[in-house]
Design brief:
The protein has 483 residues and is α/β, with parallel strands linked by helices. The chain has helices spanning 14-26, 37-46, 63-73, 88-96, 109-151, 171-177, 181-184, 189-192, 197-205, 248-292, 301-325, 337-354, 373-390, 421-424, 442-452, 475-482; strands spanning 6-10, 30-34, 51-55, 78-83, 99-104, 155-160, 166-169, 211-216, 222-234, 237-246, 333-336, 358-362, 368-371, 396-404, 407-413, 456-462, 465-471. A hairpin with a 2-residue loop joins strand 16 and strand 17.
């Protein structure tokens, strides 16, 4: 025997029970003897035994029933039934109920010891198999977690609860937030500016499930993610598992849809009332001009000029409305952006000259895009004039074209003081303006033109200036589509 096996003997014949106990103890077993089945079950609940030796005929219940109940307490206990009235049917029934062996009285003690040793080996084998299955289950679970962790398209990170230091991150987390593994492990999201420490605590207190969180990438780019935070036990240490799904692009599309809905609403209004307003305004302007030129009205000429100027301003607003409402098909053709920009340069330079500003062109790359030339000319003029108005005297406006990831890109960069962050999400919304006398429709027209071209506008702003980039669809795809 490899160690002192623990045996519970239950037999209502006390003399026989004592003989068995004494004999087994001399053979190296640690034995407990009882004469009651109920006491035996209670003993099994209190102590661990390796082997159960039970008589078939016990007053409270038979040996098979006792063994059945014992196995519910300890499924790995090896049971042997002894009886003086054995039949084949009884033996088969005992085996079916979980008995390892069936020993007939009278028995030789060596035969009984041999049966107990075989039962003990069987018990150990069952335990080892169970442990192996558990180990395999743990391995498979760990392997499954490893694959999910490392190959998931979501951002996943594990941080320690007590100090919020990174313990592990998956490749998507690194790629999206633009860090290397060495830059993150052992440091906190707050330390790196990725996520405020207080926000982690707040999210956990709220349940931390499917909550929008803004992560800050290394470059400063904001990543909006639908995130869940859950506490886990990792090797005995309480940690926080962060799982985040990047929805930045989805949020961008939602904002664009909202913006376009507003543009469509303004366009519908323009189509309904624009032309109707212009007719009476034209008449009013004509009569004002006629009255202004009369001799008796000369003392009030400045008032007439002011009224005509305001009518012209109202007419400009209507023109902007109608530009938003344009529904005519686009005349889409391949055009070189540098050619269009150069054709507008004299006009933009003249505007800049009168306000003591400079215009620089960055047109080294022959960028071609599929576009409606008239509409893109209007977009460039609107954005260029906005840029000039945003700068102080002496500033330089840069207009250029380049290819980024196979997309033709038009960009206009000013040297103004930048835009307020709160305005960025509302740019392009009708009547949103930073100009003292602006009407907030010029940029709305630009966004409308971009939308009709299936282009997108991205804005990068800082205290040193603002850059508007118009990303047209992939040039090769566009040329194939419209050729």
């Amino acid at each position: 025997m490899r160690y002192q096996a623990r045996v519970l003997v239950i037999d209502d014949e006390i003399e026989l029970m004592n003989v068995i106990v004494e004999a087994l103890e001399t053979r190296g077993f640690k034995v407990t003897g009882l004469t009651s089945a109920i006491e035996g079950l209670e003993m099994l609940c209190r102590q661990k035994f390796d082997l159960l030796l039970v008589d078939m005929m016990i007053p409270e219940m038979n040996g098979i029933e006792l063994l059945k109940r014992a196995l519910t307490i300890d499924p790995y206990i090896a049971g042997i039934i002894i009886t003086g009235y054995g039949t084949v049917q009884t033996a088969v029934k005992a085996m079916k109920m979980g008995a390892f062996d069936f020993v007939l009285k009278p028995f030789n003690i060596d035969v009984l010891v041999s049966a107990l040793n075989r039962a003990l080996d069987f018990r150990q084998l069952r335990q080892e198999n169970a442990q192996l299955r558990e180990s395999m289950a743990v391995y498979e679970s760990e392997d499954r977690f490893y694959k999910i962790f490392h190959y998931s398209p979501d951002l996943i990170a594990i941080i320690r609860e007590k100090d919020h230091k990174y313990l592990d991150v998956n490749p998507m987390y690194l790629e999206t937030l633009e860090y290397s593994r060495d830059e993150l492990i052992g440091r906190t999201p707050e330390e790196l500016g990725i996520l405020p420490d207080a926000q982690i605590v707040d999210l956990l207190s709220k349940g931390g499930k499917n909550i929008e969180i803004n992560f800050k990438a290394k470059s400063g780019h904001i990543i909006t993610a639908l995130s869940s935070l859950v506490k886990i036990n990792l090797n005995g240490e309480i940690c926080i598992l962060i799982i985040a799904k990047d929805i930045t692009e989805k949020k961008h599309y939602e904002q664009e849809i909202t913006r376009l809905d507003r543009l469509n609403l303004v366009g519908e209004m323009a189509a309904s009332i624009g032309h109707e307003l212009r007719n009476p305004m034209t008449s009013i302007r004509g009569f004002l001009q006629m009255l202004r030129d009369k001799h008796e009205c000369m003392p009030y000429q400045e008032y007439y000029d002011l009224m005509i100027e305001e009518l012209d301003r109202a007419n400009q607003i209507i023109s902007e409305f109608l530009n938003l409402a344009k529904g005519k098909p686009l005349d889409l053709k391949p055009h070189y952006l540098p050619v269009i920009i150069k054709s507008l340069y004299p006009m933009i330079r003249a505007d800049a000259y009168y306000s003591d500003k400079q215009v620089r062109l960055d047109l080294d790359c022959p960028v071609r895009a599929i576009l409606d030339e008239k509409e893109i000319r209007q977009l460039i003029l609107n954005m260029a004039r906005n840029g000039l108005e945003a700068m102080q005297a002496g500033g330089t406006l840069t207009i250029g074209a380049r290819v980024i990831q196979n997309c033709p890109v038009l960009y206009i960069k000013d040297e103004g003081s930048g835009l307020d962050e709160s305005l960025l999400s509302r740019l392009g919304t009708p009547f949103v303006t930073t100009k003292e006398n602006g009407i907030g429709l010029g940029l709305a027209v630009c966004y409308s033109i971009a939308a009709r071209h299936k282009a997108r506008i991205e804005v990068d702003t800082s205290p040193q200036g603002t850059t508007f980039c118009v990303y047209f669809p992939n040039s090769l795809e566009s040329i194939t589509l419209f050729s």
